[in-house]
Design brief:
By secondary structure, the protein is of the alpha+beta class. It contains 3 helices and 4 strands. A 4-stranded mixed sheet has the order 1-2-4-3, sandwiched between helices. Strand 1 and strand 2 form a beta hairpin. It starts with a helix and ends in an 11-residue tail after the last helix.
């Protein structure tokens, strides 16, 4: 998702699922595939390297999860690291992957977003 209207229509809904650092907003769509939006604010991740890592990992896990027809937005809701520590490291990436995997696993298992019979 790239347009403001698309983001706004999903943000109007309540959050579907939360982890310690992320909030997931989702709604069903009438398209043939799932769409993703990622919001990583500068105040939550001060370094561009960290924000880009978050976006990259989110997109990678989104592609790997065979999600139903849904628009989802993953928003960083808690600061990840400060300017004092390293911008990215293996531990941070592992924690991000674990939390994001939880979000997408929830979407796969949620009955409200389940695939309709006959759809692939």
């Amino acid at each position: 998702m790239v347009k403001t209207d698309e983001f706004s229509s999903v943000f109007r809904l309540r959050p579907v699922y939360r982890t310690s650092h992320f909030v997931l907003y989702a709604r069903n769509n009438d398209l043939s595939s799932a769409r993703l939006g990622v919001v990583a604010a500068k105040r939550m991740a001060p370094r561009a390297v960290t924000r880009n890592t978050i976006k990259r990992v989110t997109r990678e896990l989104f592609r790997q999860a065979a999600l139903p027809q849904v628009d989802c937005i993953v928003r960083l809701s808690k600061p990840v690291n400060s300017k004092n520590g390293p911008a990215t490291n293996a531990k941070l990436k592992a924690e991000l992957r674990e939390e994001l995997s939880q979000l997408f696993a929830f979407l796969l298992n949620a009955t409200a977003f389940a695939r309709k019979p006959g759809n692939k």
